[in-house]
Specification:
The structure is a homodimer of 643-residue chains. Chain A is an alpha/beta fold and 643 residues long. The first copy, chain A, has 3 domains: 281 residues, Rossmann fold (3-Layer(aba) Sandwich); 169 residues, Rossmann fold (3-Layer(aba) Sandwich), CATH 3.40.50.970; 125 residues, Rossmann fold. In chain A, the strands form 5 sheets. The first copy, chain A, has a 7-stranded mixed sheet, with helices on both faces. Chain A has a 5-stranded parallel sheet with strand order 1-2-3-7-6, with helices on both faces. A 5-stranded mixed sheet of chain A has the order 16-18-17-20-21, sandwiched between helices. In chain A, helix 1 crosses helix 3 and helix 20 crosses helix 21. Chains A and B meet through helix 6, helix 8, helix 14, helix 15 and helix 16 of A and helix 6, helix 8, helix 14, helix 15 and helix 16 of B. Chains A, B: Homodimer. Chains A, B: It comes from Desulfolithobacter dissulfuricans. Chains A, B: Belongs to the transketolase family.
């Protein structure tokens, strides 16, 4: 029978306190056993935060029999390394057996990894890299607010990680958006790996939160059950519009005399002889050997949870057709499509949400903002927080668009997007101002690495539309399709792509399909493979070559991840290839094509045109010319190749 | 004759104030003309920070005739977009002519890009991505402290960028290390792109700095020359150990009635008719047409500064030989080599500096710290700040090692490293705990993207040593070699690589050469190309295959950027290839090899072994086996390939 504490009560009964003490003893034993058995792991912080975890799980809304129950309160463990503590408490709460945990902890293929992951029943979010958890919790809390739900979001943080600047970004955001359904918990043991937090990087965490406008509840003793209960009760009932943090003074290694306040136990387990001593101190039996034998057996995998699959019903709305004479930028086409999605889906409770970072106008989110003010979030110049928040929000049955310049949406927050990738999120990153097409703002603002960066992840698709029509279809596609999607575009106005007869290529019959490229032109001598902002130049090159009696194909690779292997090989079998991209030449499409050729054992000449040095500050057309990416240079390259 | 203000005086004379007013008028004219001529750029903030810039340059130590004079005070423009203001003031100070600036601003190939770059005489650092400038200035200030130099470092910041968390990291660091030679200047115009800073993301910047322990000088009127002079004098004479920031209330678009306090002028220039009005208001002649004609001529390039080339004399010290029986980790070999470098170079004023983020012990910097406490910097869990600071410090005649886990040294701070790349820095990033070799800590801590990330830059080499001996030589090499270098390694102990006869392969005769691979074994049937932590498994596979009568070569590609093309092609001509790496298979060595094959037109079967999904939490050997990276799987792959 799992302990449940009534948040409406003023204090705990002595029976409840005794029960918590008994639970603590069982959990402390598991923390020590599990880390010694694994010969690695983090016992110190697990013991300092244990009492907080016990009271929190006894008070929050959750159901071990239904770990993903929608009404559950969310618990984000920003300190993913205290997995021994979290798993011990989840076992205590009946999410799985002690046997499963102790037999599998930190073993390959087991359901109990070294940092908490959502494959473990009861774990909400994969964490490990410090400083991101609060942003994740903010994303969940904001999602519940948008949907008018009363779920609370708990976020357990360490004190050392408060050195990360991203936390300040998250604090500011939570205050601005009045997230009083968010409850921060800080395990203030004053120790981090290299020693005292005061020596490593002095700061007052209490001051930090109050300066950021949060309500701070400070507990002199983070191991006092009644104090924890009363603090969480107060925070749980908070409707002030001000987010609350409970900062609890705790003791690293709490409960084991020789471990207390020892920084080294942050990340090192006890040796068997020390364990014996510790278990004796706890007054529990030392059954280490029994578990050592059990760990000789194959790991049990029946507790492993599958990734979340819930995703809202989304109407793609009516596609917009831009006629052949239209001259606009893909950004505007994105903005129009996003507005269309809002009109089709945000009547009543919003389904589509949008986040930007002080660039609403540049990324064309203004129309969406106007239509769905309750679903648009201005995160300020705080990209690290915004990206992490967007990832979490996108897992709460909301379609979450995150838009800013490419350099900020990809290069600056690569590791935040990586964590969303781990977490099987549903992010829709639509980045504008990519490549040399940014022009005069110069190299710091020219993102030429987006494909090279996303190639390092496993669960992000990468789409680069060639014109406003394809942008419209792709934006509607990603809204209706679960998972992480990146859509990138340049800054400048770009012509509508047409067929040879002048008719619109991506017309209303066109359906965007990931992994399928578009044959914009069919020729016999060679193929130009391209995407994005330089596609029009490739078509112009096609024309120049045609005038010179050379017949080339132009293949538009709007879907870069996944790649259209069949079309690449088809092109390679037909003749030489030239890849053209507004991207670093050593990490973009060209190398992907080369790799496909080798994989398929098809040998054909390939010339890779791309960005070979940092771009300058000037007109895009001139920057392209400087790097051989203009129509004449492309045509010349093909001509040389065919000599 | 350039205006010089005497910092020791108590106030400005009326002549000096008149001169500043005259300078302002000339500079305001250039700001307006340059942006209208370019039809893009940022006039608003240039006008709000103009008075600060004028007084600052009149007070700081600098020499237009010798822009890189070592004794100069440094000025970092964290708001790189106010280039029109900066260039106008530099022209006023005689760094170059007004003609050069106005004729070239934002034109391709000119020396006057849209965001400030160090190709412009008088510009210290390429900036553009907000929030990094203070970390850069901190790196310079720390460098001067280490070297016992009295140079001051000015950092001009905007108010909007104070939303970036990295700034808080930099503030904390500056306070901890008592950088009273650092002078922050904040252009507090209360406007950012999307409107008022209070609406976009509320905060008190004054409170922020004082809470971080800085001395705050607030100026009600950031356009009052005497107030600016007195504030900067006070800051200039600061020896309190407390860093100072001057927060000046300014007016966006100051001086042009219809531009004042208009957010839209952050990033948009005046139209010609508005310009005429503005110039009339300034009481200066409107010679727009003359400049428009001048801009029909080719850009002038004679002002363009070459990258910094100064680099200290460094002794590599005595290489350490690890004998064939040694079993240690490359981290320890790095720590030993770093200590050796300190012993050889840090007698008296330090030449070698080291920075870590709460992981001194794990990255084995303890010995260095002990030997050179004045040259070791503990930045706390603040990687964004630490990486940016390291880049700047490495440009001040110091050899700067930045070490933490791979995920934090590369994945988390990719964009900070990118800015160091722009700036031709001399960073020595030595990252430990890379790849599945991290083991039980699991996927969030397993960096499998380092090569894939650095491929997107242009000025970083990437070296992955195979054993402690090669680690020792590579670490000594990068210390003596200018430029940005990345050295990566795993976590586990690894055997010393030997020749077939059992002798040490990387012995004392071995000299590490970038772009040269090592033939660990020579065979006739196929070649295994590998690097880093999986190299021993490849040698084991070689042995297994030898026992099976198959003769393969093992090529160790310790230098991944630059790559040893010749050896790759030599191997390809000899037979099939198998690449083996503890790295994402779609962004690592395998795709580089495939690309080289296509480039060279050499066709041979290639199998790319690498990380194909996120690793688990368990013993490295088991994680390798799961992904086919263990000796048996590698041997099996070769066998299959040769069937």
């Amino acid at each position: 029978m799992v302990l449940k504490l009534d948040v409406s009560k003023s204090e705990l009964s002595s029976e409840e306190i005794q029960e918590l003490q008994a639970m603590r003893k069982r959990c402390a034993r598991r923390i020590l056993l599990s880390t010694t058995l694994a010969a690695s792991g983090h016992p110190g912080g697990s013991l300092s935060s244990l009492d907080m975890l016990l009271v929190m799980y006894a008070m929050m809304k959750h159901d071990p029999a239904n770990p993903r129950m929608p009404e559950r309160d969310r618990a984000v463990m920003s300190i993913g390394h205290i997995s021994p503590g979290v798993y011990s408490v989840l076992a205590e709460n009946g999410y799985f057996s002690e046997e499963d945990f102790l037999q599998g902890f930190r073993r390959t293929g087991s359901g109990f990894p070294g940092h908490v992951e959502s494959i473990v029943p009861g774990v909400e979010w994969d964490t490990g890299n410090l400083g991101q958890g609060l942003s994740t919790a903010v994303g969940m809390a904001q999602a519940h607010k948008v949907k008018g739900e009363t779920n609370r979001v708990f976020c357990l943080m360490g004190d050392g990680e408060h050195q990360k600047g991203q936390l300040v970004e998250a604090m500011r955001y939570a205050r601005k958006y009045r997230l009083d359904n968010l409850i921060g918990l800080v395990d203030r043991n004053h120790l981090q790996i290299c020693g005292s937090t005061e020596e490593v990087m002095p700061q007052s965490i209490r001051k930090l939160y109050s300066d950021m406008g949060w309500e701070v509840i400070y507990l002199e003793d983070g191991h006092d059950y009644n104090a924890l209960f009363q603090a969480i009760s107060r925070a749980y009932g908070n409707t002030s519009g001000v987010p609350v943090v409970i900062i609890a003074r705790t003791i690293m290694g709490k409960g084991i005399s020789f471990m207390e306040n020892q920084a080294k136990y942050h990340g090192s387990p006890l040796k068997p002889e020390q364990l014996a001593e510790a278990l004796a101190e706890l007054g529990v039996e030392n059954d280490l050997e029994k578990w050592q034998e059990l760990r000789q057996q194959p790991v049990r995998t029946h507790t492993i949870m599958a990734p979340r699959t819930d995703y809202p019903e989304v109407s793609p709305g009516e596609p917009i057709l831009y006629d052949a004479k239209t001259m606009t930028d893909n950004r505007s086409a994105y903005g129009n499509a996003l507005l269309g999605l809002a009109e089709a889906n945000n009547n009543g409770t919003p389904v589509i949400t949008g986040i930007s970072c002080d660039l609403e106008g540049s990324v064309k989110m203004g129309g969406f903002h106007k239509h769905s003010p309750e679903a648009y979030f201005e995160a300020g110049i705080q990209e690290h927080h915004a990206a992490a928040m967007a990832g979490a929000m996108s897992c709460e049955n909301l379609v979450t668009f995150f838009s800013t310049f490419g350099v900020f949406a990809v290069s600056e927050v690569y590791n935040q997007n990586r964590l969303s990738d781990f977490n099987h999120a549903n992010m829709k990153i639509v980045a504008t101002h990519l490549g040399l097409d940014v022009g005069e703002d110069g190299p710091t603002h020219q993102g030429i690495d987006y494909l090279g960066l996303f190639k390092n992840l496993f669960r992000f698709s990468v789409f680069m539309p060639a014109d406003p029509n394809q942008t419209d279809r792709i934006v509607r596609y990603i809204a209706t399709s679960p998972g992480n999607h990146f859509v990138g575009m340049g800054r400048s106005k770009t012509p509508v792509i047409t067929r040879e007869d002048g008719s619109v290529f991506f017309d209303t019959d066109y359906v965007f399909t990931p992994g399928r490229a578009d044959w914009l032109r069919r020729g016999s001598d060679a193929t130009i493979i391209t995407y994005g902002a330089v596609t029009p130049s490739c078509i112009e090159a096609w024309k120049l070559l045609q005038e010179a009696g050379i017949s080339v194909s132009v293949l538009n690779m709007a879907s870069l991840i996944p790649l259209d292997r069949d079309s690449v090989i088809e092109a390679a079998k037909a003749g030489p290839l030239v890849t053209v991209e507004d991207h670093h030449v050593e990490s973009g499409l060209g190398v992907s094509v080369a790799t496909e050729l080798v994989e398929a054992g098809v040998s054909t000449p390939l010339v890779r045109l791309g960005v070979r040095r940092y771009g300058g500050s000037g007109k895009p057309a001139e920057l392209y010319q400087q790097q051989g990416l203009d129509a004449r240079s492309i045509a010349e390259t093909v001509r040389e190749l065919l000599k």
